[in-house]
Structure formats: C-alpha cells, structure tokens
Amino acid sequence: MPSMQTTSPLAIRQRWGMSRRVEVQRVRARWEWARRDPIPFLRWFTWTLDQHAPEGTDPLRPFPWQRPHIQTIVRIWQHNRLLSIRKSRQMVMTWLFAALSLWDALVHKGKLIMLQSKRLEDAVGDESSGDGPLGRAKVVLNNIPYREMVLPWYDPRKHKRETRLVFKPIHSTIWAIPQGAHVIRQRTASGILSDESHFQDEFGNAYAASAPCIRGGGWFVSLSTAHPGAANDLHEDRLDVDTA
After folding, report:
1. 119, 125, 127, 233: least surrounded by Cβ within 10 Å?
2. What angle do CA 91, 94, 98 make, to 5 degrees?
3. Is there a contact between 234 and 222 (Cβ–Cβ < 8 Å)?
C-alpha cells in the first residue's frame, strides 16, 4: 500500500481505478483478515520509521513482512508462550514485537501487554524518532492506513499516555516498564516483551515473576543481542523457573 504521508486515499483510488465503495470494501476485508492473522496486519497496516533514511526522503517505510525470517518468527510466536531470541542489527526484531504487541492489544479485548527495558526511559523511547518498544508501537499506531475506518473508536487525545497506550473501549493496555519484578508481580500480564534482556541485571527476577503470565496462556519474549547473564541462561535453557 502506498505511503499515506505522500499519497492520499483519493490518489490511491485513481491509481488503482477504484471507486470509494470498492476502496472501503477492500480495506474492511483486509482489516478483517488482519484481525485474525498478524501477518496481514504487518503486510497492510504496519509502517515503521527508517532512522537511516537518506536526507530528503520519507522515513516512513512499509514493514518488511515478506522477509522469510519474519514470517517464521511470527508463526513460532503464535504457537509458543515462551521465546528467547538473540538478534543482530537490521533484523527489525524490536519493530516486529512492538507491532505484534500492538496487534494483540488491538484485536483482542482485555489485554495487558508489558514492554520492559533496563530503564523506564528505554522502554518508553521516543515516538518522534521511533525509539524504544513503546515509541515504536506508537509509530505503528499513528501510521495505520485508514485508521479512522478500521479503528473508529481510537482517539489519541484520550488513549495516549507517556508510559502507556490505554484503549478503554476494548479494555486493553500497552505499558512500558523498567527492569525488575515489581510491576510484573503486581499484575498478571497477557504478554511481556523484555527488550535487550541480556543487559537487564534483574532479568532473572522479572522472568520468575512472569510465571503466572505464561502459565495462564500469556506470552513472554526475551529479545536481545548476546551477553552473559540470566537472559543468556534462559536462551541456553539453563535458567530453572517453573512455568509449566
């Protein structure tokens, strides 16, 4: 789908030879598909911010959903409650799980998704530059094509907070939190993304506190570049916490 920043819906209709009625039908059909499957959501409704875009070009980019490793990881995430992923640059893993966290919160009612980093500032990030897991989730939300059509209840003035996205009409929340077990232990999350987990000194405690989330059918993703510590022990299957 063309960039909504540079191409208006009218221009899309004219280019594709669509009437307004056909356009609406196509968008609604694609959104219904995306509600059932995160890959169509990544394909048609996810835009990211390229922090290395050449000067003078539009930094908004469609998410590279077609990369083989992306689709494989999405399917693994859908069918496994616990994942530990070692990443390298340009794999867009933080973007991927920020978008998947948003998808989970938007299409399923009553979700509490926690995005955890070493410091709260790291978890919150900056939506203007696409930094941090919450900042990236906000970029994706801000740039969902035809958002007024597919999410008519969403109002940025009511649902955005500095450390959260609160979707009151569907009772879902995405919450940025710092490292440690304190916040996780107070509430049972539906999903937890631990970003750069190998660099969190308190990762072991946070993972132990996430056991009710995992046992209850929620998901936990440890995402980081390789580094010694508790998150590395989890990756090597040497961190013994009962989540069965």
Report:
1. 119
2. 135
3. yes
